[in-house]
Fold this sequence. Notes:
Residues 197-240 form the Galactosyltransferase C-terminal domain. The protein is an alpha/beta fold.
Amino acid sequence: MVPDGPLENPGTPLGEPGRRFVRGNDWSALADARPAVPPTVSVVVPYYRAQAQLDLVLAGLALQTHPATRLQVVVADDGSPEPPRVPAGVVVVRQEDRGFRAAAARNLGARAADGDVLLFVDGDTVPEPTYVEELSALPALLPDALVTGRRRHADLTGWTPDRLRDWFAGGPAPEELTEPAWLRDAGSLLEADDRSYRFVISAVMGTTRALFDEVGGFDETFGGYGGEDWELAHRLFTAGAVLAHRERAVAWHDGPDWGLRGDHPVAARREKNAETRALARLLPDPAARGVGGWWRYPDVVVRMAPGADDDATVLGVRSLLAAGVDLQVWGVDPDLLDGDPRVHVGEPAAAVLARCRTQVTLSGPVLWTRGGLAGLVERVRPGGVGRVTGSVGGVPVEVAATRALRRCARWGVDMSTVFGEAAVEVPAEPLGEHPDLGHWLPRL
């Protein structure tokens, strides 16, 4: 059975009094909680050559209800011809102009930040006065939290900081534009699944500095518009992050959502296709990458001990590769399988383990029945248990969700406490010495 509900923090490097971890993704007990002392917060604002919009964003940040003495603002300039003009106290960092590099700019800003909580807001997205207070509360209490706020849309053409201050004080509001349904309907994300990364947008996002640093921040290979926030969210979720959507943390984007801008359809499709290709390369979501490709970062990592002989090892690996799962195998000499790029000696690279959703450990090769491995993998998806252990055809096996392994290791707690465990006995054909390859390979 999967436990749920909050647990008191058992003590970690982030284990000050009042901090907690939760079971699964259930942060509901902390929904209205506030830290006894407001956290130190750094807000990172990526910027490129849009001073009037930045003026509004900085004016919004100057109005925050969060204590100014515990709030740092960092503007990360993506190579503008002229540096941004900012009020005293605002930190500016710059990188050279090598095209649109929002991911690298955000990382640059994060490196200059000194807050325990990192918040991100885009340079054309104006935070309401309670934005920082609302978005930082959960990460301050829950070091595993990855929180996205609510992005609303308005036409702020011609607006000044004075006009903005008047609006937030109760004066005339701007014309509100359509809020995209896909984000508005995200809900709280209490029941987040493997595809909930799609509801995290870096325009209104927050997490702890420790968790951001642990996963290495944004992937800087992203160029052009979009995708880097989904990839980071997937990697954070895989690292055990708790996803949350805080509708009370509101910021206003100047202009319509990307999907409602009315761009030329072919140009818009090309832009979206570039994002899709970039995500498929890095993100092992079957719905994102489809079937039929070879991927550097598999969905499932299998560690398999070799069999009694080369024939048993080859058949065991071929049985895994035929299981209908996006996987690769470690622990086997790829020369046994004619250099198959899905087979490796040694251990998986850190970048592979950072992205795979599931890890399987087999004490030897077995001949899997159709659907047998996929069924075990499904049991450790969100909503299931964190790990299943037992045997397949008499061979010891462990199948675990990477996010469960990572969070339990971070907190030093048992898997059964946070995610739950199950025992399994799966029928399969054990592979003794020199199985008949001519008989079995055509039947995989």
